């Protein structure tokens, strides 16, 4: 009887450990925005990564990516004096100068969207904390 109880207990522990391993093997996903800017007047370039949303599954992240592109390109959200182009998983915004017609393009912004596992940070490794 004790032997049967011990076997049942070991089986229960094994099942709990197995299910915990399965859950931890599931990876969360993060939708990132890679924003690149080019100011034509100063020729200044900048680039920054911004997290937008987190999801449990990659397919959910990809669906959220499509929603974000639709939101950004919706006519109600378009900046005045700008041209938007969807290029795959990116949106390019061409900004025009209203004050200087001879210098038509003021700058370009590109917002590229990408889904990455939550274990990857495109901004690079974080340095050591304060000492």
Structural class: alpha+beta
Query: Helix amount, in percent?
Result: 25-40%
What sort of overall outline do the alpha carbons produce when their principal axes are compared? flat
Overall structural domain count = 1
The fraction of residues assigned to DSSP E strands is: 35-45%
Radius of gyration: 24 Å
Number of helices: 2
Uncertain segments of ≥5 residues (pLDDT<50)? 1-25
Average of pLDDT: 78
Strand tally is: 5
Question: What layout of secondary structure does this protein have?
Answer:
Elements: H1 2-25, E1 29-39, E2 44-55, H2 58-73, E3 82-87, E4 90-96, E5 105-117
Antiparallel strand pairs: 1-2, 1-5, 3-4, 4-5
Structure report:
With 131 residues, the chain is of the alpha+beta class. The protein has one domain. Helices cover 31% and strands 37% of the residues. It has two helices and five strands; from the N terminus they run αββαβββ. It has helices at residues 2-25, 58-73; strands at 29-39, 44-55, 82-87, 90-96, 105-117. Strands 2-1-5-4-3 form a five-stranded antiparallel sheet. The chain is flat.
